[in-house]
Amino acid sequence: MTDLPEALLKQLEEIAEDESRTPADLLESLLSGYIQMRGRQATKKGTLADLARAAERAGLRSSQPVDTSARSREILETEFPDYIRRNWDKAQDDPDLHV
User: Fold this and answer.
1) Residues 6+ positions from 33 with CB-CB distance below 8 Å
2) Which residue has the higher pLDDT, 59 or 13?
3) What pTM was computed for the model?
4) What percent of the chain has pLDDT over 90?
5) Following DSSP, what letter does each residue of the chain receive, concatenated?
Protein backbone atom coordinates (compact mmCIF):
# COMPACT_ATOMS: atom_id res chain seq x y z
CA MET A 1 0.00 0.00 0.00
CA THR A 2 2.99 2.28 0.02
CA ASP A 3 2.41 3.05 -3.67
CA LEU A 4 -0.87 4.81 -2.86
CA PRO A 5 -0.91 8.60 -2.51
CA GLU A 6 -0.54 9.81 1.07
CA ALA A 7 -3.88 11.67 0.97
CA LEU A 8 -5.69 8.50 -0.08
CA LEU A 9 -4.04 6.48 2.68
CA LYS A 10 -5.02 9.12 5.22
CA GLN A 11 -8.67 9.06 4.05
CA LEU A 12 -8.72 5.27 4.25
CA GLU A 13 -7.30 5.34 7.77
CA GLU A 14 -9.78 8.02 8.93
CA ILE A 15 -12.80 6.17 7.57
CA ALA A 16 -11.57 2.88 9.05
CA GLU A 17 -11.09 4.55 12.43
CA ASP A 18 -14.59 6.08 12.29
CA GLU A 19 -16.00 2.60 11.66
CA SER A 20 -13.77 0.87 14.22
CA ARG A 21 -12.17 -1.25 11.54
CA THR A 22 -8.72 -1.74 10.16
CA PRO A 23 -7.85 -0.08 6.84
CA ALA A 24 -7.38 -3.57 5.36
CA ASP A 25 -10.89 -4.64 6.45
CA LEU A 26 -12.39 -1.47 5.03
CA LEU A 27 -10.56 -1.85 1.73
CA GLU A 28 -11.57 -5.51 1.48
CA SER A 29 -15.22 -4.57 2.08
CA LEU A 30 -15.09 -1.79 -0.52
CA LEU A 31 -13.51 -4.08 -3.11
CA SER A 32 -16.02 -6.83 -2.41
CA GLY A 33 -18.92 -4.41 -2.92
CA TYR A 34 -17.36 -3.11 -6.12
CA ILE A 35 -16.88 -6.62 -7.52
CA GLN A 36 -20.50 -7.54 -6.71
CA MET A 37 -21.77 -4.36 -8.37
CA ARG A 38 -19.78 -5.07 -11.53
CA GLY A 39 -21.09 -8.62 -11.60
CA ARG A 40 -24.69 -7.39 -11.42
CA GLN A 41 -24.06 -4.90 -14.22
CA ALA A 42 -22.47 -7.56 -16.42
CA THR A 43 -25.45 -9.89 -16.05
CA LYS A 44 -28.06 -7.26 -16.93
CA LYS A 45 -29.08 -7.89 -20.50
CA GLY A 46 -32.16 -7.15 -22.50
CA THR A 47 -33.18 -3.95 -20.76
CA LEU A 48 -35.33 -1.39 -22.51
CA ALA A 49 -32.29 0.87 -22.69
CA ASP A 50 -30.41 -1.89 -24.58
CA LEU A 51 -33.32 -2.25 -26.97
CA ALA A 52 -33.52 1.50 -27.52
CA ARG A 53 -29.80 1.75 -28.26
CA ALA A 54 -30.03 -1.16 -30.70
CA ALA A 55 -32.98 0.45 -32.46
CA GLU A 56 -31.14 3.74 -32.75
CA ARG A 57 -28.05 2.05 -34.18
CA ALA A 58 -30.25 0.19 -36.69
CA GLY A 59 -31.95 3.43 -37.73
CA LEU A 60 -35.39 2.17 -36.70
CA ARG A 61 -38.02 4.89 -36.46
CA SER A 62 -41.78 5.21 -36.35
CA SER A 63 -43.40 5.76 -39.74
CA GLN A 64 -46.04 8.05 -38.20
CA PRO A 65 -45.82 10.93 -35.74
CA VAL A 66 -46.43 9.77 -32.17
CA ASP A 67 -47.75 12.03 -29.40
CA THR A 68 -45.66 10.57 -26.62
CA SER A 69 -46.58 13.24 -24.11
CA ALA A 70 -50.23 12.18 -24.08
CA ARG A 71 -49.58 8.44 -23.98
CA SER A 72 -46.04 8.13 -22.64
CA ARG A 73 -46.72 5.62 -19.86
CA GLU A 74 -48.87 3.42 -22.08
CA ILE A 75 -46.34 3.52 -24.90
CA LEU A 76 -43.43 2.70 -22.61
CA GLU A 77 -45.26 -0.20 -20.99
CA THR A 78 -46.80 -1.80 -24.08
CA GLU A 79 -46.12 -0.58 -27.58
CA PHE A 80 -42.49 0.50 -27.44
CA PRO A 81 -40.97 -2.78 -26.18
CA ASP A 82 -43.00 -4.75 -28.74
CA TYR A 83 -41.97 -2.39 -31.54
CA ILE A 84 -38.30 -2.61 -30.61
CA ARG A 85 -38.40 -6.40 -30.30
CA ARG A 86 -40.05 -6.81 -33.71
CA ASN A 87 -37.58 -4.50 -35.39
CA TRP A 88 -34.62 -5.97 -33.51
CA ASP A 89 -35.54 -9.38 -34.94
CA LYS A 90 -35.74 -7.88 -38.44
CA ALA A 91 -32.38 -6.18 -37.97
CA GLN A 92 -30.79 -9.46 -36.87
CA ASP A 93 -32.04 -11.14 -40.05
CA ASP A 94 -30.75 -8.36 -42.32
CA PRO A 95 -26.94 -8.43 -42.62
CA ASP A 96 -26.93 -4.93 -44.15
CA LEU A 97 -28.21 -3.40 -40.92
CA HIS A 98 -25.50 -2.75 -38.36
CA VAL A 99 -26.94 -3.20 -34.89
Assistant:
1) none
2) 13
3) 0.39
4) 4
5) -TTS-HHHHHHHHHHHHHTT--HHHHHHHHHHHHHHHHHHHHH--S-HHHHHHHHHHHT---SS---HHHHHHHIIIIIHHHHHHHHHHHHHH-TTS--
